[in-house]
Amino acid sequence: MHPDHAPQWTPPAEAEDQPRQWRRILSLFRPYRGRLAVVGLLVGASSLVSVATPFLLKAILDVAIPEGRTGLLTLLALGMIVGAVLTSVFGVLQTLISTTVGQRVMHDLRTAVYGRLQRMSLAFFTRTRTGEVQSRIANDIGGMQATVTSTATSLVANFTSVVATILAMLALDWRLTVVSLLLLPVFVWISRRVGNERKRITTQRQKQMAAMAATVTESLSVSGILLGRTMGRSDSLTRAFSDESERLVDLEVRSNMAGRWRMAVITIVMAAMPAVIYWTAGFALHFGGPAVSIGTIVAFVSLQQGLFRPAVSLLGTGVQIQASLALFQRIFEYLDLPIDITERERPVHLDRVKGEVRFEDVEFRYDAEGAPVLDGIDVTVPAGGSLAIVGPTGAGKSTLGYLVPRLYDVTGGRVTLDGVDVRDLDFDTLARAVGVVSQETYLFHATVAENLRFARPDATDEELRAAAKAAQIHDHIASLPDGYDTVVGERGHRFSGGEKQRLAIARTILRDPPVLLLDEATSALDTRTEHAVQEAIDALSANRTTLTIAHRLSTIRSADQIVVLDGGRAVERGTHEELLELGGRYASLVRRDARLEPTS
């Protein structure tokens, strides 16, 4: 069974309960509680200054102007100006600190998700679209930017302002305050309804954005463009992308329009409230109630407008936070992914690895309830020896090889390196001990030198050249206008298949691992190129323990030991000559291989 046949990963069907989700969100801000406390002080100070201004206005209208007290008038007017200046300064400082904290939280989230994915087994990536992974890191975390940078602070600021304003309104006139707050419960109910609707739509929108990102990643890569052009499917790919984009347009419109009419009604009612206050004060005076001074009415209306602005913002913030919960949930799904391959609490570290590899009664399943991909494999490869693994497609060849560097973990038996179970070794020992050259050569969009130094960042220029010469690629690199500073292009497409393979071999030579895993490293090459690459592989394999997963059997005839896999079991083993004499599966594969070999 090939890794691609592993079950598709899907996120949990049920979202975690909101109280736990809120606790997790708040825990993200815990490392920055000192800065947030400063923000809280600035918010409180700003609210107090804002609330004080209407009282200064009341004193101006009821005392300073009627009594002609110009000195008091000047002081009160200056107080209002100072209040405006302080509010602005507090607002700038508050924005600076809260934005910094928010960006740090986003950085922490991005790093946590990326680090989690780096620790996932290879099986996860064989069943997850690359665009989906990229969308979680870019779109979902990016979509939370407003929430973690400004929304949280806005929530605190508006809440503090609303509380302070209501207390000030009660101090001015409790009856007018009651009239002003009658509709507030209705507004809160409406905003919760809108928030739930926005959250539901946001979840659908982010899934659609992930699907579109996956389409872009797959179809606009170099390989995707080549496939689309050569198959004449460019127009159909464009139409498919257009359909994805059209669905996103619909979701974006629904997301932005969700509850707009209901929130518009709230805004209209709040804008009309000053008229209601004037009407209430006038009727109270007309029917013999206690008189309300002009200064009190003006100050109260000013406070009321000061209340409505943060109240509307508070309701809108609540809606935005409800929508952002869907984004947090998608990120938490990745942070909660179970890590299959972990390091022991006290792992074994080997300073020097000889290279003996043993497979002891190895069993492997992709799914606990599925059929075994490998079953009862017992093979020993002495240090410096060579093992070739052959068999039909789907026999489990690559899976067996990938157990050595722990790209997968056995589900039964064990794999040992120098007598130590690879699961007991620390990751650093394994990374130094086992080098992998596969058919799918991956090169970064960087220079040749940078790609080679990925194996050893401290390698000198002379060491780069020595590795390239051993891999028989130095002369070609030197012939390029920029030499080792040549940019290889997306996935190395400026180089041929054989050149990319030799670059990968040079990179592995630079790493100098005692154990080498060659996963069909020449199967996609033509015969002439294969010979050149094989010479580089022979140089790389010298004095190393070598495990070769072979497609072309001509490349493994000199192996110390050959194991034939079929249906996940070792059905034959021996040298090339011994297996030919046996006349079994291997002999049949050799005859087939000979028929497929080009005659020229």
Could you explain the architecture of this structure?
With 600 residues, this protein is α/β, with parallel strands linked by helices. The chain is 62% helix and 9% strand. The protein has 21 helices and ten strands. It has a six-stranded mixed beta sheet with strand order 6-7-8-3-9-10. The chain has a four-stranded antiparallel beta sheet with strand order 2-1-4-5, with no helix packed on it. The longest helix has 49 residues, at 70-118. It is elongated, with a radius of gyration of 35 Å. The two termini are 35 Å apart. Residues 1-15 have low confidence and may be disordered.
In short:
With 600 residues, this protein is an alpha/beta fold. It has helices at residues 18-29, 33-64, 70-118, 122-126, 130-143, 145-172, 174-181, 184-219, 222-230, 234-257, 260-286, 294-335, 397-402, 427-433, 448-453, 461-470, 474-479, 497-511, 527-541, 576-582, 585-596, and strands at 357-364, 374-381, 386-390, 412-417, 420-421, 434-438, 515-519, 545-549, 561-566, 569-574. α3 (70-118) runs antiparallel to α5 (130-143), α6 (145-172) packs antiparallel against α7 (174-181) and α11 (260-286) packs antiparallel against α12 (294-335).
Strand content: 5-15%
Strand elements, count: 10
Oligomer: single chain
How far the N terminus sits from the C terminus, by CA atoms, comes to 35 Å
Helix content: 55-70%
Q: Segments where pLDDT lies below 50 for 5+ residues?
A: 1-15
- Given helix and strand content, the structural type is alpha/beta
Strands of the widest sheet, in order across it, are 6-7-8-3-9-10
Backbone shape: elongated
Provide the gyration radius in Å. 35 Å
DSSP helical segment count: 21
Mean pLDDT across the residues is 79
How is the main sheet built? 6 strands, mixed
